[in-house]
Specification:
The complex is a heterodimer.
Chain A (H helix, E strand, L loop, with lengths): L3 E10 L2 E11 L4 E5 L6 H9 L6 E6 L2 E2 L5 H7 L1 E3 L12 H8 L8 H5 L3 H20 L15 H14 L4 E5 L7 H16 L3 E5 L3 H7 L2 E6 L2 E6 L1 H6 L1 H8 L5
Parallel strand pairs in A: 3-8, 3-9, 6-7, 7-8
Antiparallel strand pairs in A: 1-2, 1-4, 4-5, 9-10
Helix pairs in contact in A: 3-6, 5-6
Chain B lengths: L1 H24 L5 H24 L7 H15 L10 H9 L3 E4 L5 E4 L1 H23 L4 H21 L9 E2 L4 E3 L3 E3 L6 H23 L2 H11 L1 H6 L4 H27 L1 E2 L6 H14 L4 H16 L7 H15 L7 H19 L1
Antiparallel strand pairs in B: 1-2, 3-6, 4-5
The chains are: A alpha/beta, B mainly alpha.
Chain lengths: 254, 356
């Protein structure tokens, strides 16, 4: 059974069909890339899966259970975490605090517990900090832990966002253009992190423009154009697909 | 970190005691009255600090909750309940401690203040939820406008309803007795105890709020402030958290209003006024929004000056001017590095001007 199954999902903005009956499925442990020219509907598709936008039709299943139309926090609580194309960190908080927010669903402390500082709370907090620190270490963020995220360079901010999503211990990770704005060195580092994350058993769906990264890490690729899926397959097939080439390079006969 | 937090609290305790001793030694014991009232106003400010500074939800209607706490208890502990109950009922209720006679107000039968406190907390909670559920869907100015509307409605209801005493408010409210020997009320012999009681509540508020802020829920609130979208993507139930924090801040305000009313033995409609709400918002802004200690300091200083009449008839104008000044020169409050930089720069410039 696929971990994520999207069937005929659709969303339009006014007259524009941003996502037009797109279907695909992701097997557990896979890295699946979604590519397509600007405005193809990739981020809209992500927002539909993550619940930020309400779909206008179709079905979405996560581990066989429908998550269609659920609000974003419910979807996150089920184990789908994401990063944002335009990094959305909590800018007034430190790196550690940001990543701890990612760990929110794995903690229990309520307002009541917190207000009266029950001992269980401190134990939980310690456990959380330990886990989160380990994630930060994996992504080379240890030296930034106590810095406010607004003071970090863009590449590091992207990594903090990745760490924050990982802290939720997701089963499915949605990465929206994780390499955008990164230099070559940072991108290759990112590729190795992505592979490492997959090794730990997390399924990844990735939107990306950097073709070398996409071809490098992904097992399968879905190609969108004008809201429609035009191709799906392994990287070597996609590279040879005439329709995909036409979309990317422009078709003289069109 | 932990020790640092305790040091702050210890400093606050020492400061509270020092103030009392100072007032005693300088023979100006009367200022304890205003300081007690300041404590109750500070409770509202602290609750609003959590809502506005940390969770980022600006409410221009918090005076309504303060007044609600005050008016409800005034109603229950000043009105004669004689007509309401038959004789047998009274004896049961008296035995249960639900109603009591008050020697201070002509031996009238009233709800025991502790029952009244329960009712106030319950009603405030219900009202905060009823108001909060539709209002907290709004963001930014829309939320502020809606809470402003709520504040206006509550103000006019207190001002125009007979049982709330219309423009006169409610006077002759029974004292709130604790352990039999101490009462929150107008009795001058309890002045020092009242001062300590009010500031004990402030201390409790600070501890509770600090605990909340430095926990999972506090992080979630600050996350909501920075990006609701990202917070919800991390599994934070944004709607629920906003509602809970709104209710908590409303309860803080109502508790402030409750004790203030018993202490002053009455309450008037001006407590529900829009200018009061604006004042609370101004104080939180000057205190630095997400800065509990800043809000505590500014809440104490400004409320005390205002109660002492330092600002004369320009009282509200001072808070208006503060709001403008803060927004222009120190949008993050007075207790920031940026502002102290700016301030030093400014002083330096003035000095240069003069030395020319």
């Amino acid at each position: 059974m696929p971990i994520l199954e999207v069937k005929n999902i659709a969303r339009s903005f006014g007259g524009l069909k941003a996502v037009d009956r797109v279907s695909f499925s992701v097997e557990g442990g896979q890295i699946k890339a979604i590519i397509g020219p600007n405005g193809a509907g990739k981020t809209t598709l992500f927002n539909l899966i993550a619940g930020i936008l309400e779909p206008h039709g179709g079905e979405v299943f996560f581990k066989g259970e429908s998550i269609y139309g659920l609000p974003p926090h419910k979807i996150a609580q089920k184990g789908i975490f994401r990063t944002f194309q335009n990094v959305q960190l909590f800018s007034r908080m430190t790196v550690l605090e940001n990543i701890l927010v990612g760990h929110h669903r794995k903690m229990q402390a309520s307002f009541f517990h917190a207000a009266f500082g029950v001992p269980a709370l401190h134990r939980e907090e310690k456990r959380a900090v330990k886990k989160v620190t380990a994630i930060a270490e994996m992504l080379n963020l240890t030296k930034h832990l106590h810095i406010q995220t607004s003071q970090l360079d863009f590449g590091t901010q992207r990594l903090v966002e990745l760490a924050r999503a990982l802290a939720g211990e997701p089963e499915l990770l949605l990465l929206d253009e994780p390499a955008a704005g990164l230099n070559i060195h940072e991108t290759s580092q990112l590729a190795s992190f992505i592979r490492q994350i997959r090794t730990s058993g997390i399924t990844i769906v990735l939107i990306e423009h950097d073709m070398s990264l996409v071809m490098d890490v992904s097992d399968e690729i879905v190609v969108l154009s004008y809201g429609k899926k035009i191709a799906e397959g392994i990287p070597s097939e996609i590279q040879k697909n005439p329709e995909v080439i036409a979309v990317y390079l422009g078709n003289e006969n069109a | 970190m932990n020790i640092g937090r305790r040091i702050h609290l210890l400093a606050l305790c020492i400061f509270i005691i020092a103030i009392q001793l100072l007032a005693e030694m300088s023979g100006s014991r009367y200022i304890l009255t205003q300081l007690t009232m300041t404590g109750y106003y500070t409770l509202v400010v602290l609750g609003l600090c959590l809502l506005m500074g940390y969770a980022g939800q600006v409410s221009l209607g918090h005076a309504a909750f303060f007044a609600l706490g005050g008016y409800l208890t005034a109603l229950f502990s000043s009105s004669h309940l004689d007509q309401l109950f038959t004789h047998e009922n009274i004896s049961i209720l008296r035995k249960a401690g639900i109603i009591t006679h008050h020697p201070e107000i002509n031996n009238a039968l009233c709800l025991a203040p502790i029952v009244s406190l329960g009712i106030v907390l319950f009603f405030t909670l219900i009202l905060a939820l009823i108001i909060g559920i539709p209002l907290l869907r709004l963001k930014g100015h829309y939320l502020s406008m809606a809470t402003l509307g709520f504040g206006i409605i509550v103000h006019r209801i207190f001002l125009g309803t007979k049982i709330f005493g219309e423009a006169d408010g409610i006077a002759n409210v029974a004292p709130f007795r604790i352990f039999g020997f101490f009462a929150v009320g107008g009795d001058a012999s309890h002045r020092i105890a009242n001062f300590y009681f009010a500031w004990f509540l402030v201390l409790c508020a600070i501890i509770i709020l600090r605990n909340i802020i430095n926990s999972r829920v506090g992080r979630a609130l600050r996350a909501i402030h920075d990006s609701e979208e990202a917070a919800s993507a991390m599994g934070v139930d944004v709607g629920k958290y906003k509602l809970i924090v709104f209710a908590i801040s409303a309860l803080f305000a109502a508790i402030g209003g409750f004790f203030m009313t018993h202490y002053n033995t009455g309450i008037g409609p001006s407590e529900a006024g829009i200018m009061k709400s604006v004042r609370y918002v101004a104080i939180v802004a000057v205190g630095g929004m997400a800065n509990l200690w800043g809000c505590l300091i500014m809440g104490t200083v400004l409320n005390f000056f205002s109660l002492r009449g330092f600002f004369g008839s320009y009282d509200d104008a001072v808070f208006g001017a503060l709001l403008i000044g803060i927004m222009i020169w120190a949008p993050d409050g007075l207790f920031t590095k940026e502002f102290s930089h700016k301030f030093r720069h400014f002083v330096e410039k003035i000095r240069c001007q003069f030395s020319k």
